[in-house]
Amino acid sequence: MNAITPRSVFSDRLMLDVNGNSELSASRFGHLTRERANEVFDLSKATLGNELSVSDFWGNETASMSKAVTQATGLTYYDLRAPALNLFPTITPLRNRFARKQRANPGTALNYKTITSLAGSGFNWMGWVPEGTRAGAMTYTANNKSVSYVTIGEEDSLTDEAQFAAEGFEDEASMVQLRTLLKLMAKEEAGMLSGNATLALGTPTAPTLAAAGTGATLPALTYSVIVVALSQAAFMHATLAGGVPSTVSITPNGGGTPFVLNGGASMRSASATQAITLGQTLSATVPLINGAVAYAWYVGGVGAETLQFISTINSATFALPLAGARQAATVIAADYSVNAGLAYDGFLTTAFLNAPSTGSYVLALPTGVAGAGTQLTSSGYGSVVEVDTMLKTMWDTYRVSPTVIYVSSQEQRSISKLSMVGSGSAPLIRYNIDEGNANVQGVAGNVISFYFNPYSPEGGTKIPVKIHPNIAPGTIMAVCETLPPWYVQNETPAVAEVLTRKDYYTEAWQKVTRRQDYGIYCQSALAIYAPFAVAVITNIAPTT
Predict the structure, then answer these.
(1) CB 3.0 to 4.6 Å from 455: which of 13, 378, 395, 528, for a disulfide?
(2) CA torsion, ordered 262, 265, 268, 273, to nearest 10 deg
(3) At 351, is the secondary structure helix, strand, or coil?
(4) pTM of the model
(5) Measuring CA to CA, which residue among 513, 514, 501, 527 is closest to residue 107?
(6) pLDDT tens across 388-428, in order?
(7) pLDDT tens digits, residue range 436-484?
(8) Taking a C-beta distance cutoff of 8 angstroms, is the pair 228, 296 a contact?
(9) Do the strands 221-230 and 439-443 form a parallel or antiparallel pair, or are they unpaired?
(10) How many CA atoms lie within 13 A of 506 on its CB side?
(11) Are 249 and 260 in contact (CB under 8 A)?
């Protein structure tokens, strides 16, 4: 049995706390007597034993007051997991794959020379020479090349309050710089894919329109259609809700002259008109634009055209009532495709630029049926005709084979379907067999992760097929990352390199307020030495 502590113990303790240890006169103001101490405990017990109540203005008891404490009261511990979770992807396959080299004396541009062909004397492929006679002189083609260094950068800031308030949670100064670096890496990846310093998309021709069919709900009207071609950069930024990017003016942190970046779109085309009766579908096509991976379609009454669709083929159809509150075609008032003097040409841009002249393989599939386009074609024996043709052409012309094929999720699905099912074979299903329990588990969802290239002196090679996070649906890019050994070099035979004047570095700008500004910058040039080692297939409709 637990002993009950006498009330005198509590009284003595209370008297000690109030009166202290010294002997004080009982007549002193504030002196606590034993009698008053006992009264305090009696009143406390009585209060705790009765339900609290609320009185009205006149002192009349009106309601009971709850004494319960719940979670809603808020007297709880705040369990904050540290540090903050960075739930954003940073996928940079091109940046990761190609070498970065710091130049000793970089200057303003990287200059280099290429020898692109050797022509023998006499017949190009005959070397016969009579006894004692000299051969004729061969000739070769030499080219001077130059790539200017450009700067990429991103900035963020941290106030003193935010820095000190984050102590014990995370090192906020370090995290601000890390997140800024990750964002800059993502921007560099986009630049290596689609940077554009030289390839102007120009102005598309007016689209060709037609009306056909029954059952559509597009209201009767004479419709006007305008089209805008989109580069890879423009496609990455364009949305139906936000519109097609034209330009953005950037005010530098810390002052300075604002600068303008172009968003990557062409000038808008002239309009074409077509009368539609209720039930008909409006279709539109436009001739292919070299360098475009998508097209933005503006539809409406004459003079009231707004953005209604973004396609990754050069055609579109409209069967439903138009959406309201969309970007007007008049916003696209110039060719915004090039950032001359600020950017370098990425892999896609380089391929489009060099396709007519120095050999990059570029295939744009035909227009086909408006709105449906042209799909990839199964060879009938486990491959895709258009990819096979690309591989054969690269070998026949330049004796190279891609070492990686980059696709979107759409083309990965199309290639897998055509290679495994389109060839006439039954769908492939993997089986996991548990011999101990006699269980057989089927695993669906096969995908092509390698593509076999038979065009090689070694009897063929397997090419990884990888999803690139940015590449537009409807476009495939193949890259030979390293030239084969029969391209004799005096150093590593890289197809491309990132040459740096100053690789990633941090600028902690001088503080003029209680805020620290951080900038992450890189000064570099993307040198694609062998444009023929890059190939593109575009204007691909999804496989149905």
Answers:
(1) 395
(2) -150
(3) helix
(4) 0.83
(5) 501
(6) 999 999 999 999 999 999 999 999 999 999 988 755 555 55
(7) 565 656 666 778 899 999 998 888 899 999 999 999 999 999 999 988 8
(8) yes
(9) unpaired
(10) 17
(11) yes
Stated length of the chain: 544
Integer Cα distance of 415 and 417 in angstroms: 5
- Bridge-based pairing of strands 496-508 and 100-102 is parallel
| Full 3-state SS string of 102-129 | ECCCCCCEEEEEEEEEEECCCCCCCCCC
Of all residues in the chain, the percent with pLDDT exceeding 70 is: 88
Question: Percentage of residues in the chain with pLDDT exceeding 90?
Answer: 66
Averaged pLDDT, 295-300: 98
Residue 431 one-letter amino acid: Y
What Rg do the C-alpha atoms of the chain give, in angstroms?
37
Cis peptide before 83 (omega within 30 of 0): yes
Burial annotation 252-278 (CB, 10 A radius, 16+ → b, else e): eeeeeeeeeebbbbbbbbebbebebee
Closest C-alpha among 282, 278, 285 to residue 212: 282
pLDDT the model gives residue 509: 94
| Strand-pair partners of 476 | 537
Confidence of residue 237 (pLDDT cuts 50, 70, 90): very high
Q: Specify burial of residue 25 (Cβ count, 10 A radius: 0-12, 13-18, 19+).
A: exposed
CB environment 35-49: b (16+ within 10 A), e (fewer): eebeeeeeeeeeeee
Q: Answer yes or no: is pLDDT of 9 > 80.
A: no
Token pair listed for 37: 């101490």
**What's the mean pLDDT in 255-283?**
95
What is the spatial distance between Cα 15 and Cα 76, in angstroms, rounded to a whole number? 35
Q: Give the Cα separation of 342 and 112 in Å (integer).
A: 21
Task: Calculate the alpha carbon distances from 243 to 205, 222, 308 in Å.
Answer: 21, 24, 10
Residue the block writes with tokens 């269980």: 439
